[in-house]
Amino acid sequence: QVQLEEAGGGLVQAGGSLRLSCAASGRAFSIYTMAWFRQAPGKEHEFVARIIWSGASTRYADSVKGRFTVSRDNTKNTVWLQMNSLKPEDTAVYYCARHRDAITYGGMSPTADEYDTWGQGTQVTVSS
Is 30 strand, coil or helix? Predict the structure, then answer.
């Protein structure tokens, strides 16, 4: 059974940067699209970014485009989210997730129900 573990969250001032990591246990990491979602208090999961199994294609939410970068290293079973120019509205718990199907891009507007394996989340707090 695959397990995902996020790390790298914390408290940062607006304009600062953080780099989140997500380490996956188990096999077959390299054939699944991975995504980052976030959840602010009282809100539903919000798509942030995704990267396909090979790393050749990425997709971002409009709210983070140009500021966040998703990457992966299949030899290390790890996916990262580099977050620059952070804003207070980026404050949330950030989750990495694995798509439910292998070798698929997923939907054009990614939703949480496409992903069936989730980490425990890591808190990101951006102060103004």
Answer: helix
